């Protein structure tokens, strides 16, 4: 297994006057082609973690390395080429004047030739299903469409890691499902590593591994199945909720977490 | 905002819309110089015909152009009147001490009026037929030689394009804040001037704060996507200089030539 991203003892404090750290001693590794979901309540330090991973913030302590490259002031530009970060607010990350200009922004920064940019932009827009809107201006787009553009902007750079900081919040359930499927495909075909910081159970359910954060610390980690069973405080996906409800009613149900499809299969037996 | 026609783009597919922004900018600036070559009624008649023809080509209604002149009409009339009232020479019609209405005064007043209106019409043609973003690209491209003098041309062009991109957002936001303040009982446009100005403070403060937040978010987003100022960037929006652009600049040269000939007669 190739270690794509290694985070060791990461500590960070936003406000020096406070005693509590924003992040304290966070360590984890992500393998190539893995989908890691990071979940936690507001203020648990998830977004701070995302900003640290791309070098927008400098940690007090600890070390980040991507593909064996240790994050320093000198290497941060190279690491940013490997990690594509999509932020939560799509409006503020829309730099270009039209959809295709915005997707090309990151490519322009690489001083890429026009012909190559055109191919990359077309590909990226196709991936998020936004080709129809390529000449649209941001004012004529919905929040969800802008988020798709933001994701396309990150994908156009062909990162090896895609970091999503609650990038799906403005999408309607249908396009969220759509994009999740697109990303799952990319993960397989391009060996893309995905780290998604999220509140959404469905986004968590498709991941390979879940990291639970609380007040700046990693408090639990494991497969989605384990986490949904263990963390009763987190709203589980519909199938798990149904399982618990049935159990509460005294029916005999399997002791393990099931996906919607497994649940359906079991119910129909 | 609706009154300001200068700087508003009218989507269309005319011959002028398809011109390169650079040639339009050059022509627009050249026209201002050319206009000062005209010093006879015939010359102005030619300029009027030329300008009206170009306006017709743009496919935008004449009324739109007149609306563009309206905000400046007082300035234009003032300049015209100054010429008419104080210029002397030729036959004098009215003589009240320093105030005289003379033949030259009337003619010069007319010239000044024509110059203003023609310049506004012509530059309105440029802005109505060119997308603001294309204008920005054009300006950036024309100023490129200044890079040798260490003028950060690309950065300025990017700044300009981002500002243009965020104007609608800021307008929305202003509207939102005004609605929010209205819901809290603020009444805009009432009371004395000072009171009216005071009601603007609770608009600008939140607007300012949110703009700063927005700027920070944006700077982060740009940095994450690899933007570094001072490095060489390619451009996705391509400008292409076509034969038609050279031709239109040639027409400007011919126009200037004709005016020069008429002038020496």
From TrEMBL, chain A:
Coiled coil: none annotated. Its EC number is 3.6.3.-. Its main location: membrane. One of its GO terms (cellular component) is ATP-binding cassette (ABC) transporter complex. Gene3D superfamilies: P-loop containing nucleotide triphosphate hydrolases. Keywords: ATP-binding, Cell membrane, Hydrolase, Membrane, Nucleotide-binding, Translocase, Transport. Residues 5-240 form the ABC transporter domain. InterPro entries: AAA+_ATPase, ABC_transporter-like_ATP-bd, ABC_transporter-like_CS, ABC_transpr_CbiO/EcfA_su, ECF_ABC_transporter_ATP-bd, EcfA_1, P-loop_NTPase. It comes from the Bacteria. GO terms for molecular function: ATP binding; ATP hydrolysis activity; ATPase-coupled transmembrane transporter activity; cobalt ion transmembrane transporter activity. It is a peripheral membrane protein. It is found in: Cell membrane. NCBIfam families: ECF_ATPase_1 (TIGR04520), PRK13648.1 (NF010167). Belongs to the ABC transporter superfamily. This is Energy-coupling factor transport system ATP-binding protein. The lineage of its organism: Bacteria, Bacillati, Bacillota, Bacilli, Bacillales.
From TrEMBL, chain B:
GO terms for cellular component: plasma membrane. It is a multi-pass membrane protein. The chain crosses the membrane at residues 25-53, 65-86, 106-128, 244-262. It is found in: Cell membrane. Its main location: membrane. The keyword tRNA-binding does not apply. Transmembrane (T) component of an energy-coupling factor (ECF) ABC-transporter complex. Unlike classic ABC transporters this ECF transporter provides the energy necessary to transport a number of different substrates. This is Energy-coupling factor transporter transmembrane protein EcfT. The lineage of its organism: Bacteria, Bacillati, Bacillota, Bacilli, Bacillales.
